Amino acid sequence: MYLERFDSAARGPLRHQIMPIYFAPDQIEAAVRLGLPDRAAGALARFEPWATAARHPWAEAVLHRCHALLADDDATAERHWRLATDAHADANRPFERARTDLLYGEWLRRARRKNEARTRLRGALETFDRAGARPWSERARAELRATGETVTAGAPDLIALLSP
């Protein structure tokens, strides 16, 4: 369903030529999580020329994140995760850096590198909490718990506490 919404937006009446490129990193992540690497590779093929030509640290960081998600082996994935992290240092997009840290932390946890995973996941959680991005915060909390760390519940959603 999620990927179909990308396709619909790319072909719909409000489409714009940049939208399929701009949404490609999200589409890649969704396709990888759904076990659809061919679909992810197609989105990467659209995104990579644009990201390379853009010559912007954000585009470089996200491009490496996408390559890490699609890597065939751990050494290649590790190299791309590190390059993504390095590029984020100059990108000034904390939310995107947190997304990379979350994905990298998930990868590290699956590789049984729990201490390294915790560092990434804590940073991601802090950024998501500051941004009020509850679904992202909950995902980071769940990953931290999976490393064996005790994690406190997030701050209450103050908007939800307001009476109608």
From TrEMBL:
It comes from the Bacteria. This is Helix-turn-helix transcriptional regulator.
